[in-house]
Amino acid sequence: MQRLYDADMRLLGYLAEGASGRLSVLDADRRVLGYYYPASDKTYTKDMALVGRGNQLAALLERAGGRA
Question: Which domain holds residue 37?
Answer without folding.
Answer: 2-63
